[in-house]
Amino acid sequence: HGQDLESKLVHDRGAFEESFVRHVETTLARNMYNCDNLAAYQAASSTVRDALLVDWANTQQKQTVHNGKRVYYLSLEFLMGRAMDNALINLKGRDNAAAALSDLGFNLEDVLDQEPDAALGNGGLGRLAACFVDSLSSKNYSGWGYGLNYQYGIFKQKIIDGYQVETPDYWLKYSNPWEIDRKEIQIPVDFYGHVYEDYDPNSGKPKKIWSGGERVLAVAADFPIPGYNTDNTNNLRLWNAKPTHEFDFTKFNAGDYQQSVGAQQRAESITAVLYPNDNFYSGKELRLKQQYFWVAASLHDIVRRFKKTNKSQWEKFPEQVAIQLNDTHPTLAIVELQRVLVDLEGLEWDHAWSIVTRVFAYTNHTVMTEALEKWPVDLVGRLLPRHLEIIYDINFFFLKDVEHKFPDDRDILGRVSIIEEGNEKSVRMAYLAIIGSHKVNGVAELHSELIQTTIFKDFVRVFGKDRFTNVTNGITPRRWLRQANPQLAKLISEKLNDPNYEYLTNLGNLKKLEKFIDDDEFLTKWDAIKFHNKRRLTALVKEETGIELDPTVLFDVQVKRIHEYKRQQLNIFAVIYRYLRIKELLASGVSIDEIKLKHYISKASIFGGKAAPGYYMAKTIIHLINKVGDVVNNDPEIGNLLKVVFIPDYNVSKAEIITPASDLSNHISTAGTEASGTSNMKFALNGGLIIGTVDGANVEITREIGEDNIFLFGNLSESVEEIRHKHIYEGVQIPETLQKVFDSIESGAFGNPEEYKVLLDGIRYHGDHYLVSDDFDLFLDAHIKLEKVFGHHGGDASDKDHLHRWVKKSVLSVANMGFFSSDRCIDEYAENIWNIEPLNQ
Ligand code: 26V
């Protein structure tokens, strides 16, 4: 019956309409005459949710009966974006929903547009987790996500007078139809208190007891994750922190009722807000509380599920459970499992530890030292006294092994110790994660190589090369092709003779597009779709900024978190250089038309991205971009030759509009700093070309699509250290071109030069850590080269070869992007790290 209902709601127009009307009248307590787009979204999403729940319940049932190994993906961030379009696509019910809504007087796109983004993440790491749960479901794995149900997601960014202003993202203003409250699933989590020793009455052995302190409840909220073209619907479980309602009666009796209730209410602050830092560690107590709260609740949930069928057969635990640590944020799970096994279940230390290390694996997402978590020992000891003891014990046994292995190397002990000695002792979470895992992976080849030769090189000596591996990141083609770029997805399905879009789960099939590389009609269609997408973006830009873009010009895009290492400053400096050159040419009497013919093609530089609220330098870069935009866009001489826009509040739903509309996107991090990047994959999969450094997954993208189809430039990662050294000992050489840019900034061309002093001085006087000066001319050269290819694109129709040069590169990119499906990543994790197999449908 359930399956029937599901299939009806999604595939039967009448049933969808009936359910929609019922939800308007009952769930929303409104009527059809008083139903705006928002209400329509709520009623439609409730209908889709009802359908999802059927698959979800069946899947859980099936997985329980099968009783195979499950993987749990622990991530503090899941940057899901909107759910409804994705659910309709995965259930193959989009056309039906569109037709039903149209019958009722609504337009599906407008209705979808009402949904707030679930923005429970910062950037790459959180979006990767979202792609991974999509692939886990789509490839029929039994895999759950565990995270926190923040009331406030990543802040909303406003641009006021060119400055970033943060406002809270209260995304649960209206009830969330995708959330299934599991109020009955409550797990107590303790903090603070003290540890004492007691005797186990059974064994007579000493035993540690952790008691006292503060108790908070973890209450489950579940989110169904539908797979594409399968009934498999996994679960994403996000925890809410709630007070226990166990009054502190001593306070109560003393008449301090107010304070007693107040302390309880503060429990909810644990899951109130997502920390808005990306690639930067700041040691806040509440953040550590979030981590333990989430890890303890998730682990106890996992253990409870295991014990239901396996009782206390702990040897079976690693055969039933794999846990993937998304960065070091959940590292305390290693300690918590050891505590559960030793303190609560009475296992011997070594036995427990051998179970722990078979269960966990750790993914590193950055080599940036400022992002590596190091929690002060004092803080850990106060918040989690028993855990700190266990960390010391883990370290003791580990260092004993290291000493045994390297008896003549005294220094290595200090280097690999979990505890960093110094003014303030701290716990190095990455080291703990490596020691407690059976596999450690980086997220692209270059990155995995770098972690093994730099930050973790001692651990390669200690544990051997086999503990380390690489899994190059990927993205889900359902959202990032089918959903974001429906016209291109359709053209591909026609060309591949694949009316059911099977290629979306077999992305290697894209390769067959190469056959059509000389098919002019196809290339023209391809180009027209890009143009359509550019118009869509033009409308968004107009709405968000008031700026009118000409969709025929080159759209040159850089959207991602604002960070010095990602080098938005390099990009905007090059834009300024271009503007100054254009002004010079105009001043010397060269006409605009001649400039367009001989010097510069018309382009729009499009930026977007958030800066961490405390990251002053990043905010300065945003301000500069906006000020350059003000000057350039209002210069009457320039016209469409150059425009500069900063799209405020870049997020997943805006990415779905921006990505398919780019001709060229920037992935220009200092070599060796961007672990992988995933937006590079999204752009290439949508037929945008890349200008990039030899960094992160750009390396594998180049290998797959061919070096003729990507514009690489810049110093290589192996030279970076030496160049930095030279900067410090011999000073930084500013090339003439960049000097021109600096001079104009300092002349006040873009507002008060004082505001940009930190930015320029960082390059000139403080060692130019990110090699802007070294890569500037190389970046300009790469532009000259690529603009020759783009030039006259869409112009002189008689010169077909030239006309289609860019488009051909675009097609060849897409045709060779199959490798970057997150389905491939998940298969690699499953085989090489988790040792799990898909469930047959
Ligand atoms: C670290 C920290 C440190 C503590 C406070 C907040 C915070 C938030 C995130 C992180 C993790 C590393 C940052 C990250 O997002 N890395 C990105 O991961 C992407 C997915 O693997 C990858 O594509 C990007 O290159 C990498 O920057």
TrEMBL record:
<keyword id="KW-0119">Carbohydrate metabolism</keyword>
<protein>
    <recommendedName>
        <fullName>Alpha-1,4 glucan phosphorylase</fullName>
        <ecNumber>2.4.1.1</ecNumber>
    </recommendedName>
</protein>
<keyword id="KW-0808">Transferase</keyword>
<keyword id="KW-0663">Pyridoxal phosphate</keyword>
<keyword id="KW-0328">Glycosyltransferase</keyword>
<dbReference type="InterPro" id="IPR035090">
    <property type="entry name" value="Pyridoxal_P_attach_site"/>
</dbReference>
<dbReference type="GO" id="GO:0008184">
    <property type="term" value="F:glycogen phosphorylase activity"/>
</dbReference>
<dbReference type="GO" id="GO:0005737">
    <property type="term" value="C:cytoplasm"/>
</dbReference>
<dbReference type="Pfam" id="PF00343">
    <property type="entry name" value="Phosphorylase"/>
</dbReference>
<dbReference type="GO" id="GO:0030170">
    <property type="term" value="F:pyridoxal phosphate binding"/>
</dbReference>
<feature type="modified residue" description="N6-(pyridoxal phosphate)lysine">
    <location>
        <position position="682"/>
    </location>
</feature>
<dbReference type="GO" id="GO:0005980">
    <property type="term" value="P:glycogen catabolic process"/>
</dbReference>
<comment type="function">
    <text>Allosteric enzyme that catalyzes the rate-limiting step in glycogen catabolism, the phosphorolytic cleavage of glycogen to produce glucose-1-phosphate, and plays a central role in maintaining cellular and organismal glucose homeostasis.</text>
</comment>
<dbReference type="InterPro" id="IPR000811">
    <property type="entry name" value="Glyco_trans_35"/>
</dbReference>
<dbReference type="InterPro" id="IPR011833">
    <property type="entry name" value="Glycg_phsphrylas"/>
</dbReference>
<keyword id="KW-0021">Allosteric enzyme</keyword>
<comment type="similarity">
    <text>Belongs to the glycogen phosphorylase family.</text>
</comment>
